[in-house]
Amino acid sequence: MKKIEAIIRKTKFEEVKEALHDNGIEFFSFWDARGVGMARQSRVYRGVAYDTSTIERIYISIVVRDINLDRTIKTLVDSAKTGQVGDGKIFVSNIDQSVRIRTGEEGDESLYIKD
Amino acid sequence: MEGLTISIDTIWILLAAVLVMFMQPGFALVESGFTRSKNTANILMKNLMDFSIGSLAFWLIGYTIMYGEDVGGFIGKVSLFFGSDAINGVPDKASLMFQTVFAATAATIVSGAVAERTKFSAYLFFTVAITVIIYPISGHWVWGGGWLSELGFHDFAGSTVVHSVGAWVGLVGAAMVGPRIGKYTNSGEPRAIPGSNLALGALGVFILWFGWFGFNPGSQLAAAGEENAVAISHIFITTNLAAAAGAVTAMILTWMKYKRPGLSITLNGALAGLVAITAGCDAVSPGGAVIIGIIAGFVLVFGVSFIDKKLKVDDPVGAISVHGLSGAVGTLLVGLFSTSEGLLYGGGAGLLGVQAIGVLAIAAWAMGLGFILFFILKKTIGIRVSKVIEEEGLDIYEHGESAFN
User: Residue B250: how many CB atoms within 10 A of its CB?
Assistant: First the structure.
């Protein structure tokens, strides 16, 4: 099992969500994220220039079976990409254990719904 | 026929009074929009109370100080509770209503200049002082038969009498209460503190512009007959053109100066044009009004920058530039652009000199009295909230409720 964490543009979220659902990801978590980077937007308020370095993004967290890993990453890259600076990043890490609370199923079985 | 004239004039004055009263929510929205959301309830409370307290105080005593029988050219003969059923052109009660909304306008201008760090209790004392002392006495000089009116000083609807008076008191107040925490760096460079909601601010400016059609044309104090009908129509046009020219000028200047056309300054530009034309809206031509509006736009853009960066007085909404500097310049420009007496129309420099005397005298009066007032308040109840209240917002500590939940 792997955890895929992706930081993507807010404007790309709907597209990414559709693409993930189309590619078999039944569930994932997300939240609003704010980052501070070197990229700055300069603004002027009442004649005083200032800049803001706060960047707003969506943070997505998906736990997938190993067999789905590459396909999910490809889906994310394809759907979240604009080609401009600031498209975001994807991080992958190992998951040691998982349990479905309702049934007590563990591991891969806990990640998908059996028909 | 005379009865009809009285009726028409009265309806016009009361209608204009309603329009001017509607400038109160305009001010409330501009000030709310240009400041941070943690102080919105405080701003709204100040605007509500300066109108309410101002209405009571002006009826109680303020009106007769301003319009009572002249005593030595300086002050009106004081009597309490003005408002008999007598008719002097229009009913006294119509005059009281119309003048009350003007007095409240002068008071409310200060609210924006000292916003986000001033004690509410101190503000209430100040509101009483401006409505019963500062505004009516200098107002008497010009509109009540006092010494400036004897000289021939021309301030038709109150660029100086109403707007500058409020702004000069605001300047002294803002300087004495000090800048908001975080407004200036340790080396004295100004920092931007963006307003919370420019949609509210823009709505407020449109409402003020709308209300000005009562403020200026209403000051004709009559509508019946050909002469008055032409006059109020003329004033509508000059008022509107100056506001438009002020806004366009401010937009172009911000575009050139700051690379992009800035909304909040352009909104102030419209107001600067309105304040500037108020003194001479009856006396200048439409073309003159446009030029006055353009000059007001320049005064506004460079004034905001000057007050922020050179004087280092923190004026969150630009009240000092909009009402003080533009009001003073607009009053002076009557001396150039008055079609009957102006320098550019062959009237000589006489009126210009009188205008300058009036602007300076009233500025000195308002700043002097403002200083005494804020000095007394500072030594007694204090004028500034504590650091923790300012940082967490006046809404929670001063009023116990917040505007947005």
Answer: 31
